[in-house]
Each structure stands twice: as structure tokens, then as C-alpha cells.
User: Fold this.
Amino acid sequence: MIESVKLALRIKSSAFDDEINDLIFAAKTDLKISGVNNIDDYDPIIIQAIKTYCKANFGLDNKDSERYERSYESLKQHLSLCGEYNEQL
Assistant:
């Protein structure tokens, strides 16, 4: 997952791996809190939600963070309402 997120963030270095891993964990936790119980690391929509969360929260001078945050919130809402993702495992 981290390599996919790093590619989305346009990062090649491993200097930010700890921060990125924290963001990935935070995204998954946020999805779970919102009722998304089926978090599969190979599901393209889950991957996109995590990438979008990371894009919204990575870096201090991110001029697009609000746009990515809105996109993530929309994805999260759709996932939390979808039976395929909110069923208890």
C-alpha cells in the first residue's frame, strides 16, 4: 500500500515512509469509525479513498488539501452507505 500512496504523492524517497504509514493507518481507522468494515488493501475504491486521504493530509503547504478532503469525505460517505462495505465481517 505504501508504494501506491507514495506514487500518488509523487514521492520517491523513503524519508517520509513513517509519516505516510501513519496517514494510511489513520485513513483506515477513519473509514472504520465511519462504518466501513470491509477494508481490503486490494479493493480499488478503498485504495483510492486512502490515497485521497493521504493527499489531503500530507505536507504543511498543501494548496489542494481542501479539495482532496472534500473528495475523501464524499468517498467515505458512499462507502459507509454501501452494503458491500458496511456489513459486519
Notes: The mean pLDDT is 94. The chain is about 65% helix and 0% strand. Residues 4 and 10 are 10 Å apart (CA to CA). The two ends are 22 Å apart (CA to CA).
